[in-house]
Amino acid sequence: MKLISLVVAISITTMTFGATLSQKAKEAGLIPIPSSKSAILKLIDNLENPITDAKIELGKKLYFDPRLSKSSLISCNTCHNLGAGGADGLSTAIGHKWQVNPHHLNSPTVYNAVFNTVQSWNGRNSDLEDQAQGPIQAKHVMAAPKKLVVQRITSIPAYVNEFKNVYGNDIKIDFKKIADTIAIYERTLITPSRFDTFLLGKETSLTQVEKDGLNTFIDLGCGSCHNGIGFGGTMQAFGITGKYKFSNVGDFKGDTNAMVKTPTLRNIEETAPYFHNGKIYSLKEAIKEMGRIQLGISINNKDATSIEMFLKTLTGKKPKLIYPILPPSTDKTAKPNVL
Amino acid sequence: MKLISLVVAISITTMTFGATLSQKAKEAGLIPIPSSKSAILKLIDNLENPITDAKIELGKKLYFDPRLSKSSLISCNTCHNLGAGGADGLSTAIGHKWQVNPHHLNSPTVYNAVFNTVQSWNGRNSDLEDQAQGPIQAKHVMAAPKKLVVQRITSIPAYVNEFKNVYGNDIKIDFKKIADTIAIYERTLITPSRFDTFLLGKETSLTQVEKDGLNTFIDLGCGSCHNGIGFGGTMQAFGITGKYKFSNVGDFKGDTNAMVKTPTLRNIEETAPYFHNGKIYSLKEAIKEMGRIQLGISINNKDATSIEMFLKTLTGKKPKLIYPILPPSTDKTAKPNVL
Q1: Which of A60, A69, A71, A73 is best to mutate for the B interface (most B CBs within 10 A)?
Q2: Exposure winner among B206, B289, B292, B316, fewest CB in 10 A?
Q3: Taking CB atoms and an 8 Å limit, are B281 and A94 in contact across chains?
Q4: Cβ separation of B97 and A100 shorter than 8 Å?
């Protein structure tokens, strides 16, 4: 009888505490990925170019097709590797001819990028459709002029047919349409995690240690920038209370107002190294650095560990991905050019 | 009645012709990929390290893991892209720091490589296990010393656990075991095609035009080198009756006897450009060049087209591949090094 009372008491305590915490998390601006497909679709869809299964399939092929690069060796997936947290694990992006990103910028993850309010570190791209056009053309990334990309795709009958199936027989396959189709695929790359289940009401989805971490995350103010569905993705001032330790690496200074896109914390465990220049590999160190330069506090080891434990609950389930078989080039397809 | 007789007569003719042709093909040394799983396993298995599902899964992860390269940017799949016929579509392989293969050698396909009697263009590797060790270490490919590869893998607990699950708790994860596990995955990369169905008895698997092409292929003598299950994969003299058009590209001269590994013709439609130095992109041109330098004949356009039609029946069904989610690095994992 005594034991049962104790169990009941603990359960009630836990539930009450859990409910309070998830309520607190919501009040701090943390938003779950919904559980229903229709609610998700509403969040990720592009009204001008609605998501369809056929479009996703075509976009996936293009995402993985290295012929979208001048060399024919680099695909979107090279730097945004869907098996590696949607990024490349490098400090600085490496592209065509092994060029290092001229601003020493790190490749951000493509997973959940649809939830960002803007794209790219300086927020120059309004959405994924806009962003997808950039790296394909950039000389230090894929280095492929629009004309070359269109030539390669339209020289491959299987691609032409697939575009027709997706968009209708009158479709004009231009560079924008190719980028738009890649973006449709990218929109679907979302990764619900245990934290979403927790926020949606299942209190037992997080352990007590993880709940403590969440509590600390909120109390210290991390959620003032890392909020929303993406736990980031908005433009924020960087280095508010202290100078970033590696501010001398690269010439990146943010947008015209010195604002920097806050990276998502979803799958953060898988996307080291951290910060725009990828100079910090340790998640715990990154947490402490954020405390120092954004919050003006010294986060002790215990709290950093606790927050880290919580952040690992944001490692999400990746969409099942059947590796695409790409249609073969033809004699007319512009040859790879590695120079 | 008359019509029925005619249909019967045509059927018998076709069957007789088909049976004769498939018999002729077998006599010319062409061997189908068997249809039964157990027969296939017998052909592809490694008796010292037998294929298991768990081993395939681990091997697949390693095959796709760019952390096996010094830079952490190049995986086996970079040059042997399973979405692109198992090769890279480039004339010459490009590796670490964008280095061109010093001998101007083309990346051969990994699909059906298990059927090769030897591996690599000069046949220096006895099997896939042996071959897998080469490019990982080669300075112009993945540039990763054995020690670095072992450090990266053993620094990742999920990998260590998976090796234990696959090989038992006493497993010593060394470089050889890592390469052996990759090779196990590669052994399973076989692609049965319509031609196999034909050779196994279903005469209607090939069209008349394709049968004509097969007939020409055999009559001209192509099968004297391109035979066996792999339609190639043995060491043969190169340039028997004429000098190869691009013999001045690269310093490759074959093995010590000037023999060169005959590439497989399976999926040849997907693996342009052709020859050890990848200088010919057109399949028809490659067929004609082979006639000139290996058979001492001029293959006319009609015959080359016909053979090409037949060769396209060797484009096989790829194993369904669920893209692997790689376990994240830890603070202990040796950092990427792009220099």
Answers
A1: A73
A2: B292
A3: no
A4: no
CA distance B39 to B49: 18
A71 touches B at CB < 8 Å: yes
Model confidence over B274-288: pLDDT tens digits? 999 999 999 999 999
Question: What is the crossing angle of helices A301-311 and A208-220, to 10°?
Answer: 110
Cβ contact (<8 Å) for A85 and B328?
A: yes
Of B108, B50, B133, nearest to B233 by C-alpha is B108
Between CA A279 and CA A293 the distance in angstroms is: 15
Integer Cα distance of A136 and A153 in angstroms: 13
**Residue A20: which pLDDT band, with cuts at 50, 70 and 90?**
confident
Strands B235-237 and B259-261, bridge-based pairing: antiparallel
Please give the span between the terminal C-alpha atoms of chain A, in angstroms, as a whole number: 79
d(CA A254, CA A276): 9
pLDDT tens by residue, A156-202: 999 999 999 999 999 999 999 999 999 999 999 999 999 999 999 99
Record: contact A321-B320, CB cut-off 8 A: no
The mean pLDDT value for B13-39 works out to 83
- Rounded Cα distance between A199 and A205, Å, is 9
Looking up tokens 């919904």 gives A34
Handedness of CA A305, A306, A312, A314 (dihedral sign): negative
Contact B173, B153 (CB under 8 A): yes
Backbone φ, ψ for residue B235 (5° rounding): -80, 135
What pLDDT does A10 receive? Answer: 45
DSSP character at residue A291: I
Q: Which residues contact B149 (CB under 8 A, 6 or more apart)?
A: B68, B136, B175, B178
Task: Report yes or no: A165 and A334 within 8 Å, Cβ to Cβ.
Answer: no
Instruction: Give the Cα separation of A98 and B69 in Å (integer).
Output: 14
Structure pTM?
0.94
Contacts of residue B81 in chain A, CB cutoff 8 Å? 66
Which residues of chain A are within 8 Å of residue B71 when distances are taken between CB atoms? Answer: 90, 94
DSSP state string for B156-223: -HHHHHHHHHHH-TT----HHHHHHHHHHHHHT-----HHHHHHTT-GGGS-HHHHHHHHHHHHHTGG
Rounded CA separation A333/B249 (Å) = 22
Residues of chain B by 3-state class (helix, strand, coil), percent to 5: 45, 5, 50
Asked whether the predicted pLDDT for residue B3 surpasses 90, the reply is no
CA–CA min distance B322, chain A (Å): 5
d(CA A311, CA A193): 11
Q: Which residue of A has its CA nearest to B267?
A: A328
**Which residues have C-beta within 8 Å of that of residue B275, sequence separation ≥ 6?**
B106, B244, B246, B286, B289
The letter for the amino acid at B190 is: I
